């Protein structure tokens, strides 16, 4: 049943991408009645395609880089870079390791689980998990491309992401110590290694293609929801909320939880809200979404016990809100 469901989801993702490509290539040949193409529909379509087309190149770079890490870098190698002694001081090298991993939030949860299973303390694996989708060079490049006229957002995302990650790791260690938060497995699965018989290059290509089409479903849905959100929501209400130093970051964090794309792409969604929300609100979206969102929550519940996941969500929410609120007061 699970294999059939997975096959159906993959097929749907492929069909969505093929449909988008077909519409893009043959758009001029398609005649749509004016009654159907109202201004709102045109606006939704324009925003949707602009987000999609700007984001896809960075996602392609991200999935190939992620696949290279998946195939060529072992968890044992990472463990040597992360000291297990001095739990609080170890948070900083763990954050630096996360910054070196060009892995988005769609793929980092399994990596964090493998690190814990290999003996990396949970709070350090969590720091890697929350920093990798924000601090890696590909996300920095995509954020710069999306916010070239607002470098405060570009560097603010990196700085606040680092500070929030250190706070999150410290609180996770304070509350859970050296306990293993993973769900005890009743039997061992081997599906993660079903490409082991292929060569390294073929493994990289297969992993990259699998990840691209898996993320593609979320990208298409997220871009569409963002386009609908921007088109039909009351702009005056958005401006009122977004300009509020207290409510703005909270609203954008809630929005990020629901529609956050992969971290290589969500900068383009945030930039489309640039005229409506304050810088601190945009940063709340850009930092919170890659750390925890709806699809990430589902992935974590599959690997971690429920109490840990709920506590983790609360810690991330408090840490990111405090960081962005203070940033808004200072800038």
UniProtKB/TrEMBL annotation:
<protein>
    <submittedName>
        <fullName>Permease</fullName>
    </submittedName>
</protein>
<feature type="transmembrane region" description="Helical">
    <location>
        <begin position="267"/>
        <end position="288"/>
    </location>
</feature>
<dbReference type="InterPro" id="IPR005524">
    <property type="entry name" value="DUF318"/>
</dbReference>
<feature type="transmembrane region" description="Helical">
    <location>
        <begin position="153"/>
        <end position="176"/>
    </location>
</feature>
<feature type="transmembrane region" description="Helical">
    <location>
        <begin position="44"/>
        <end position="69"/>
    </location>
</feature>
<dbReference type="Pfam" id="PF03773">
    <property type="entry name" value="ArsP_1"/>
</dbReference>
<keyword id="KW-0812">Transmembrane</keyword>
<feature type="transmembrane region" description="Helical">
    <location>
        <begin position="215"/>
        <end position="233"/>
    </location>
</feature>
<comment type="similarity">
    <text>Belongs to the UPF0718 family.</text>
</comment>
<feature type="transmembrane region" description="Helical">
    <location>
        <begin position="124"/>
        <end position="147"/>
    </location>
</feature>
<feature type="transmembrane region" description="Helical">
    <location>
        <begin position="12"/>
        <end position="32"/>
    </location>
</feature>
<feature type="transmembrane region" description="Helical">
    <location>
        <begin position="239"/>
        <end position="260"/>
    </location>
</feature>
<keyword id="KW-0472">Membrane</keyword>
<keyword id="KW-1003">Cell membrane</keyword>
<keyword id="KW-1133">Transmembrane helix</keyword>
<feature type="transmembrane region" description="Helical">
    <location>
        <begin position="89"/>
        <end position="112"/>
    </location>
</feature>
<feature type="transmembrane region" description="Helical">
    <location>
        <begin position="308"/>
        <end position="330"/>
    </location>
</feature>
<dbReference type="InterPro" id="IPR052923">
    <property type="entry name" value="UPF0718"/>
</dbReference>
